[in-house]
């Protein structure tokens, strides 16, 4: 036998499961990672006391300006992210919420992910070296390039590594620097043929670049829209699809003559 509930009591009783569900969702871990602007590093100089690019077997040139690779920082793969964390990040421009699987390979332990990112970085460095030497028509059997960048994993520094090698070995081919003495930042994967690929977290990387003094940002052309979404004031975007195109754009920018591609 059931007693009849008054309307207020009925609403209260029905609301209890909803409140409980919302409370549970607020504290339950969600499959997301929180990201923010990370470190940048000048590949033409030192990082943590070690030269980022070391070349032997060919004469190198002194460079001015900077070529800064950019990163994002993400919560570790075993960090619990709650609904409250997601809501807070949603309304901020210096944080972003990304599916955890888009930041870390799924189904792997933290140690396995670290190893994977290290392998990705090594492969990226090898491709960056081959792309740069191919662009310069130099024999990679006689030239040894060593790339060192502590505490950074993944392939997204490939383009900047290649540009750094090109600048140290050939500059703008007329005796000048690719940077024109400016602080140039950017991101992008690269393969051995010099093709530039898309990466994640571009809008956060532009913030890191601006924070560390960059005035120009090289971005994979496919990600122009993402880069423009939260573009810091005073930072110029140059879209790139190949190493050759990136070098050409920097030469044009340095000379001040001709049209530089824009997003």
Helix/strand layout:
Layout: H1 7-27, E1 32-42, E2 46-47, E3 50-51, E4 53-56, E5 66-74, H2 83-90, E6 96-99, H3 100-103, H4 110-135, E7 144-147, H5 158-169, E8 183-186, E9 189-190, E10 196-197, H6 202-211, E11 216-220, H7 224-229, E12 236-240, H8 243-255
Parallel strand pairs: 5-8, 8-11, 11-12
Antiparallel strand pairs: 1-5, 1-6, 2-3, 4-7, 9-10
Helix pairs in contact: 4-5
Keywords: Hydrolase, Protease, Signal
EC number: 3.4.21.-
InterPro entries: Lon_proteolytic (IPR008269), Lon_Prtase (IPR027065), Ribosomal_Su5_D2-typ_SF (IPR020568), Ribsml_uS5_D2-typ_fold_subgr (IPR014721)
Descriptive report:
Mean pLDDT is 86; it is low at 1-26. The chain has helices at 7-27, 83-90, 100-103, 110-135, 158-169, 202-211, 224-229, 243-255, and strands spanning 32-42, 46-47, 50-51, 53-56, 66-74, 96-99, 144-147, 183-186, 189-190, 196-197, 216-220, 236-240. The chain is globular. The chain is built from eight helices and twelve strands. Helix 4 (110-135) runs parallel beside helix 5 (158-169). The strands form four sheets. Strands 6-1-5-8-11-12 form a six-stranded mixed sheet. Strands 2-3 form a two-stranded antiparallel ribbon. Strands 4-7 form a two-stranded antiparallel ribbon. The protein has a domain at 38-73 and 117-255: Ribosomal Protein S5, domain 2 (2-Layer Sandwich). The protein is of the alpha/beta class. Keywords: Hydrolase, Protease, Signal. Its EC number is 3.4.21.-. One of its GO terms (molecular function) is peptidase activity.
